[in-house]
Amino acid sequence: xxxxxxxxxxxxxxGLLLFLLAAGLTLVxxxxxxxxxxxxxLYMMGAYFAATFxxxxxxxxxxxxxxxxxxxxxxxxxxxxxxxxxxxRDHLDHVLATFGLILFFNEAVRLIWGPAGLALxxxxxxxxxxxxxxxxxxxxxxxxxIVVALLVALLLYLGVMRTRIGMLIRAGAxxxxxxxxxxxxxxxxxxxxxxxxxxxxxxAGLMQAPILTVQIGMGENIxxxxxxxxxIGGIGSIRGAFLAAILVGLIDTLGRAFLPNLLRQILSSxxxxxxxxxxxxxxxxxxxxxxxxxxxxxxxxAARR
Amino acid sequence: MRTALxxxxxxxxxxxxxALSADSIKIGFVSxxxxxxxxxxxxxxxxxxxxxxxxxRKMDGKPVEVIYxxxxxxxxxxxxxxxxxxQSDKVDFIAGYIWSNVLLxxxxxxxxxxTFLISANAGPSQLAGELCSPYVFSTSWQNDQTPQAMGLYMxxxxxxxxxxxxxxxxAGKDMLAGVKSTFKxxxxxxxxxxxxxxxxxxxxxxxxxxxxxxxxxxxxxxxxGVQFLNQYVQAGLKQQxxxxxxxxxxxxxxxxxxxxxxxxxxxxxxxxxxxxxxxxKFVEDYRKKxxxxxxxxxxxxxxxxxxxxxxxxxxxxxxxxxxDAMKAEMEKANFKSLRGPFKYGNNHIPIQNxxxxxxxxxxxxxxxxxxxxxxxxxDQDRFHDKCPMK
Lengths: 305, 390
Fold this sequence. Notes:
By secondary structure, chain A is mainly alpha-helical. Chain A has one domain. Chain A is 74% helix and 3% strand. A two-stranded antiparallel sheet of chain A has the order 1-2. Chain A is globular. By secondary structure, chain B is an alpha/beta fold. Chain B has helices at 2-22, 38-54, 75-88, 100-112, 125-128, 145-156, 170-182, 202-210, 223-234, 254-257, 277-289, 297-315, 323-331; strands spanning 25-31, 58-59, 62-70, 93-96, 116-119, 136-138, 161-167, 186-193, 215-218, 243-246, 266-268, 343-344, 350-361, 367-379. In chain B, strands 7, 8, 9, 10, 11, 12, 13 and 14 form an eight-stranded mixed beta sheet that branches. Chain B has a six-stranded mixed beta sheet with strand order 2-3-1-4-5-6, with helices on both faces. Chain B is globular. Chain A binds chain B through residues 2-3, 6-7, 10, 13-14, 115-119, 121-122, 126-129, 137, 139-142, 210-213, 215-218, 221, 253-254, 256-257, 260, 273-274, 276-278, 280-281, and chain B through 35-36, 38-39, 42, 168, 173, 190-194, 197-200, 202-204, 206-207, 210, 223, 226-227, 230-231, 233-236, 252, 255-258.
């Protein structure tokens, strides 16, 4: 029982991290109709900035805040310099251009920070396991990720649902063509949305950095999962991204945690230990396929027209 | 005039090149030079280049030409690159190979063309057993050997139970099987993770904690070793359940693992402080040539691969058509290996010592690896009986 609680927490933590990445992706895709493969690069840049700033300042929280700001600025610059010229073009053009950006960022990182990768050390107060229930200790840092991501989700919700900018963002998501003629500075809105998405990706990257290593190409694998999340959740919908991310996180983690033992009931032990990891990594794609068949719009699509 | 120059250029391309290659020793080197594990490939290339420098970039007086190819850590790409090296570059030797699954996919191409293949790292059990070949030599080990040594060490320490975690590919399965074959205590759990994409081991660490095992054994090469160790420490397990490793802590991962690696033992056939002359020269010159880097066992094995190739070329006085004589010479392992002298078994896998290594702070205040003890002497892999070669 305690094991289940702990694994659910693991799944939740992974899901919330995916949400941070997927939220930016779904905003950019939903509002600006831009397929941004380089979203994973912003995640990577967030991690590299954090590793650098934390080393400079010697303070984890301060370094993280600086890194967040740096990724926001980078996102805005990227939008103004490169991506602005891609709006209204074919999706294939987006894919090509942003794939080029992935190569650019990977090579830039190799030149600036070298090929070996960086380590982001946690301060001592984040490396102790905290008791959350009698008999359950959970790593403090993973708990911190859950708390921060939930806070960000709440702020996003309030920002999108309760503020004027949020209203414009929602308007953009439901009808892109109409908001321009209504006298809204769509250029500025797009830059803002892209910067916000970049900052969210950077936040995901910098929070993931102490758990993984900061290395070239770290954003590419996780970006695939983020795309799966926004497809399941419905493109353009923050609420959809939130619920789908948690769903994907839980399925991925619980699959890895319990599938091997389940399979051992029917298969030989050796076959089960080999088949289980393969099968559990397939589960989320299976879920995506089912969602695409049953509800091609996603589970919680943004309201259209 | 212009036409003449142009013609001369074409003539040089057509004849000059082939004349050069007919007289040089051509070596193909397959390793990973892109992606997160490129640091391993770079270390192997650095060491291979250093070996060639020590040989004066000549083998039996002939210039050596090396073609490096990137397998991207993918079996299909590794196979294509091997085919390219064997069929279109027509290399005389092919060396490298970090990953067991890449080597297994590439093996047939090399063996069918009777090109000598020197594995400088990967040691899948199949290669030591039924797939052994007169054309294949290893300057590393068979995968099971290192974890077997770790299992023996755990017995010495009186460990009663273990939880095993490793990646789900050829080498991961060999490693866990290896530790199981020598460890006398109870194996309370065994987890395989998706390789190489899974980087978060929270589910596995939770299970290990709940299994109440007395120890954890892992095999995670490259960056995954850093990630595993980070997460193991963050989960507070370092104070709870001691960790035993194979190929998880090395000179490439140590700068990233930092203090997390202190006190975590590993087993290895080569450690930077092994006291033989060739090794001292290797470590010194490596650090002189690449000031920010330190050599690893990957590099040491690549260095030995160059020496093994050189021994064969010298033995036949550069006549590379004498394959039987070259094979006979290589079977003698007649070169100054960085791990000290070793013998080849019938399957062309080294019979060698395995050492216990520990992480310590060295004189410069940096973390480095140190030999603590010899766990097992002259160890032969447990698959050599299955190899039809005598």
